[in-house]
Amino acid sequence: MDNHKIIQISYDILSKECMVSQTNLHNFLEAAISEYYDIPYHNATHGFNALYNGNILLKLINKPNNERQVKFIFLVCCLLHDIGHPGVICCGNEKIDLENHHAELIKKLLSKFLPEYVTEVNINGLLDTFKYKYLGHKSKNNIEHNSIDLTMLIKIADIGASSKKFDDFMCGSKQLEEEMFGKNTEDTSKRLEKDECF
After folding, report:
1. What is the mean pLDDT of residues 33-40?
2. Can you tell me the distance from the alpha carbon of 144 to that of 73, in angstroms, rounded to the nearest whole number?
3. Which of 14, 42, 70, 141 could form a disulfide bond with 85, CB atoms 3.0-4.6 angstroms apart?
4. CB within 8 A of 66, min separation 6: which ones?
């Protein structure tokens, strides 16, 4: 999928949760997508796959009290969770540095184009939690109210990464929907209820 199409569809998704000018949001997306390298796997299409799946889950998850600002940041993290990835396999401390690199790029772009979304909770809390939970560590800021959203971020990013075509990631997101919300889920204690508020 070319970057123009990614920007166009991402704009349609994010504009529903973003209360800023159309120009600012579009400029933010253009700048953000341009930070993805044209490499296998960790590219803009991979980020878009995660955004697509995250948007579906956000509509279905039973959390009607989520603020629009938090939902917007969640979707931005889905889209940009691998932004600036150099295309090399990192491990150990190098991986922690790479996750910090992703988070800092997101913060930098938000500060430049959408400064109204740069608050202590959203950036120092949410992005820090995103960074540490992505690596399987406890966040030092321990932002509990975002834990479900951020756990989903990991799952949808992984599912999106394996998709190469539009039809494939549509199928993947439907499978995830069935796994999390479906009536065929054997363990009813783990089944999530759909909410009519979204």
Report:
1. 91
2. 16
3. 42
4. 58, 149
User: What's the whole-model pTM score?
Assistant: 0.68
**Residues 6 or more apart from 105 whose CB is under 8 A from it?**
35, 80, 83, 84
Helix (H), strand (E) at residue 60 = helix 44-60
Distance, CA of 126 to CA of 106 (rounded, Å) = 11
List Cβ neighbours of 160 (8 Å cut-off, separation of 6 or more).
46, 47, 48, 49, 50, 52, 53, 169, 172
Residue 122: CA count within 13 A, CB half-sphere? 22
Angle between helices 44-60 and 166-181 (to 10 degrees): 30
Length of the chain: 198
CATH number at residue 49: 1.10.1300.10
Residue 70 is part of which domain span? 3-173
Neighbours of 155 (CB within 10 A): 16
